[in-house]
């Protein structure tokens, strides 16, 4: 049994959160599949997902500012945060640095920490893309992304936070470096974005972590 109040979850990020696919002609946001999984496994749970993704948005200056505005406007119980791909592209053009990205994330963490309603949040590491592939060899893009993702994973002092590391081999094969070409074609639509199946796989990864948090936080306890 779950508590009677509705659970409200903010899905915040860039085009990956929005579900961008086929050059923007189709969208498959991962929250749709999260809704389906929760409805199937926990039909008595009243949970609302709010998708707040924006194509092309950077964490630095853009996302960190909008994040505070969104949280000031509405009350959320949980947050799912995914961003950084566009910042990585800026970094390769010397328009941003790893320090800039991590400082922006830290500002967003502070915003969450100052919010009395948020019970937990999941921070998803910056996903793989074609530039990470092994055929590119010893490239600075992959090294810089690993620095950012390692830092995300190692910020152990941040309260309320759960990290979903998509590089992990146990993450239902979300790591493109561990995929064969056939699987890559199934899950990746272009150099950055997923197919419908890829967004479903992302949702499966999130659900694996998130359902325990939801159950522990919102289930009625019985002696």
TrEMBL record:
GO molecular function: phosphatidylcholine lysophospholipase activity
Domain SGNH hydrolase-type esterase stretches: 11-199
InterPro entries from the UniProt entry: Ester_Hydrolysis_Enzymes, SGNH_hydro, SGNH_hydro_sf
One Pfam family recorded for the sequence: Lipase_GDSL_2
Protein name (Swiss-Prot/TrEMBL): SGNH hydrolase-type esterase domain-containing protein
Originating organism: Rhizopus azygosporus (Rhizopus microsporus var. azygosporus)
């Amino acid at each position: 049994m779950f508590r009677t109040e509705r659970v409200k979850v903010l899905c915040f990020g860039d085009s990956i959160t929005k579900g961008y696919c086929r050059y923007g002609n189709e969208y498959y946001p991962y929250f749709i599949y999260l809704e389906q999984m929760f409805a199937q496994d926990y039909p008595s749970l009243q949970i609302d997902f709010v998708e707040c993704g924006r194509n092309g948005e950077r964490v630095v200056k853009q996302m960190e500012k909008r994040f505070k505005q969104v949280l000031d406007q509405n009350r959320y119980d949980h947050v799912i945060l995914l961003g950084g791909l566009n910042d990585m592209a800026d970094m390769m053009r010397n328009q941003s640095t790893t320090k800039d990205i991590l400082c922006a994330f830290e500002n967003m963490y502070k915003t969450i920490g100052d919010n009395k309603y948020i019970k937990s949040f999941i921070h998803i590491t910056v996903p793989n893309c074609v530039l990470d592939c092994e055929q590119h060899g010893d490239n600075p893009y992959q090294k810089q992304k690993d620095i950012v993702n390692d830092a995300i994973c190692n910020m152990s002092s941040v309260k309320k936070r759960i990290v979903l590391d998509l590089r992990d081999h146990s993450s239902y094969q979300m790591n493109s470096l561990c995929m064969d070409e056939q699987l890559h074609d199934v899950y990746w639509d272009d150099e950055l974005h997923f197919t419908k199946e890829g967004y479903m796989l992302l949702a499966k990864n999130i659900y694996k972590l998130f359902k325990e948090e939801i159950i522990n936080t919102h289930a009625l306890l019985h002696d």
